[in-house]
């Protein structure tokens, strides 16, 4: 199956970065899938089948046609931002702002702890350090995520990775998750990369802040 993921990408004329973005994973994670070092998750399989019209039988066995219908890349094209040659992305401390809500509501007045300079990056509003292992091994505690703030849950692309603030009994819970549709009206499903974390459905009304994760930076050593 792993080699067939590469064939799909080649047939669509996508780079690894482009298909990885569509699947909501990193380029390194996609490379591991294509080389057989990692398995294709059920979530990624569903994206290939449901959004790109890949024939599930062909994906499993290699028999039949690659696609059930012409692949629709409309949503992918709409969410692919033009990259900037160079930008200074402010890095904020959540501890210093008491959470995402005050950060997003008063970001222009807050002083960043530093700035991140990465060439050819999509437009980002800011960056923060993350805590927790729900997205491990894609992200780990201490990594930096660069985000683009959203103002409406209707702007969400299902299956992408988001930075969220959720109200739990009056307290703010900040997390990074994949957002998927829920069968329950007024709810969304939050999905982790780490298989030890169960999927969780939350009321849309409890989401207090929302941002699309555009990129991540990992610190392999502090020395």
Automatic annotation (TrEMBL):
The keyword Phosphoprotein does not apply. GO terms for molecular function: DNA binding. InterPro entries: Cro/C1-type_HTH, Lambda_DNA-bd_dom_sf, LexA-like, LexA/Signal_pep-like_sf, Peptidase_S24_S26A/B/C. It comes from the Bacteria. It holds the Pfam family Peptidase_S24. Coiled coil: none annotated. Keywords: DNA-binding, Transcription, Transcription regulation. This is Transcriptional regulator. The lineage of its organism: Bacteria, Pseudomonadati, Bacteroidota, Bacteroidia, Bacteroidales.
